[in-house]
Write a structure and sequence with these properties.
Length: about 350
C-alpha cells in the first residue's frame, strides 16, 4: 500500500462479503496413537438413556404376597390333614391345623419379596426367623382366635341363631380369624425391621383374614364339608390375607422407588427405614443383580427429617447428571445405577 493512501478509508460492502468463499468447520482430529485424549471441557457428562420397560404382574406386592399366603396355607393344611378328624375330634391334626397354616403363611410372607429379588441368601435367613416366630405366634394366636370365636357364637346363639348357615355365624368366624391375619402382619413387619410395615401388615392381614373367615363356612356348604372344603377354604383364606396386606401397604406408602428399567422393572421398593442401601451384595436392602457395573454397596438413601438424601459410592445419575457426594431427591427424580433405573416418588400431602 502507498504510504500516501493510509489516510484513506477502506470500505467493504455486503457484496464484497458475499463473494468470499464459505469457511469449513474445523475438523476434530483424533489423538495421535499413544497419546491420551481428555475430551472437551464443554462436554456434559450424562447417563446413557435407558428405555422404560413394562413391569410384570409377578413383581406386584399384592400378587406375590397373595401367592405366598396361598402356598403357606396349602402346605399347613397338607401337613395336618392326615391327622385331622371331623365332628369335633381332637387328634394331633386338629391341634396343629391352624397353627401350622399360620406358621407357614408367615414364612411365605417373609420370603416372598427376597425371592422376587432373587436373593436366596436373604430369603433363607428371613424364612428361618419367620419359622421360629410363626410357631410361637401360631399357637398363641390360635388360642386367642378360639376364645373370640366361642364368645361370638355364644352371643349370636343367645340372639336366637341356631344354624351355622346363618350369616351372623360367618361374621363371627371372620372376626375371630382377624387374629390370624394380624399374626402374619406382625411377622412380616418384624422381618422388614419397620414398625410402620408392621402396622400396615397387621391392618392388611386383618382385613384379608376377616374376608377369608367369612367365606369359609359358605365354601364348606358348597363342597359338602370334609378335606375338600378345608383345603379350598384355607387356600382362599391365605390368598385373601396376602393380597390385602400387599394392597394396604401400597395404598398407605409415603415414599418409594419404582423400577422403570432393569431386571426388576415394574417392582416398587417402599422406603421405610432411615437408611436404605443399594448394591450387588445380598446384604443390601435393595439387591441389584446381573450387572457388573454395580458395586457391592453402590449407594445409600438417608432419610433426614422429611427429605431423602442420596449418597453414592459408585456411579449414580439423577435426571441424567452425575451425583458427586450427596444429593437431596425430589419426587419424580429418575435415578440410574448401571442398567437399573428408578423413579423416586413421594405421597402428596395436602
Amino acid at each position: 500500500m502507498n504510504p500516501d493512501d493510509r489516510s484513506k478509508t477502506v470500505r467493504v460492502t455486503l457484496e464484497d462479503l458475499g463473494a468470499l468463499p464459505a469457511s469449513e468447520p474445523a475438523a476434530v482430529l483424533p489423538a495421535p496413537t499413544g497419546q491420551k485424549s481428555y475430551g472437551n471441557i464443554n462436554a456434559a457428562t450424562e447417563a446413557p438413556l435407558l428405555q422404560h420397560e413394562k413391569g410384570s404382574i409377578l413383581l406386584q406386592g399384592w400378587f406375590y404376597l397373595g401367592v405366598a399366603g396361598l402356598l403357606g396355607a396349602l402346605a399347613g393344611w397338607a401337613i395336618a390333614e392326615p391327622g385331622f378328624v371331623d365332628d369335633g375330634g381332637m387328634r394331633w391334626g386338629n391341634v396343629w391345623m391352624l397353627p401350622s397354616m399360620i406358621t407357614l403363611m408367615c414364612v411365605g410372607f417373609a420370603m416372598a419379596e427376597s425371592l422376587v429379588e432373587r436373593s436366596a441368601k436373604k430369603a433363607l435367613l428371613r424364612g428361618s426367623l419367620a419359622l421360629l416366630l410363626g410357631i410361637a405366634l401360631g399357637f398363641g394366636f390360635d388360642f386367642g382366635a378360639n376364645v373370640i370365636y366361642r364368645i361370638g357364637l355364644s352371643v349370636v346363639f343367645q340372639m336366637g341363631v341356631r344354624s351355622h348357615h346363618n350369616r351372623s355365624v360367618w361374621v363371627v368366624r371372620g372376626l375371630a380369624w382377624i387374629v390370624f391375619g394380624a399374626a402374619g402382619g406382625v411377622v412380616y413387619g418384624i422381618i422388614g425391621q419397620s414398625s410402620k410395615k408392621t402396622a400396615y401388615g397387621v391392618l392388611g392381614g386383618a382385613i384379608g383374614a376377616c374376608l377369608g373367615g367369612v367365606i369359609f363356612d359358605p365354601i364348606s356348604f358348597v363342597t359338602h364339608g370334609g378335606a375338600t372344603s378345608r383345603v379350598v377354604g384355607f387356600c382362599l383364606f391365605g390368598l385373601t390375607t396376602g393380597i390385602a396386606m400387599g394392597l394396604v401397604e401400597s395404598a398407605l406408602k409415603d415414599r418409594w422407588l419404582y423400577v422403570t428399567s432393569g431386571p426388576l422393572a415394574g417392582k416398587q421398593f417402599i422406603l421405610y427405614k432411615p437408611q436404605t442401601t443399594l448394591g450387588s451384595s445380598q446384604t443390601c436392602d435393595i439387591y441389584l443383580f446381573k450387572d457388573s457395573e454395580i458395586k457391592a454397596h453402590h449407594a445409600t438413601l438417608l432419610l433426614k427429617g422429611s427429605r431423602l438424601h442420596l449418597q453414592n459410592d459408585g456411579p449414580v445419575y439423577v435426571a441424567g447428571q452425575p451425583v458427586r457426594g450427596t444429593r437431596v431427591l425430589e419426587s419424580g427424580n429418575v435415578i440410574q445405577l448401571g442398567r437399573y433405573s428408578f423413579r423416586y416418588q413421594e405421597r402428596q400431602r395436602k
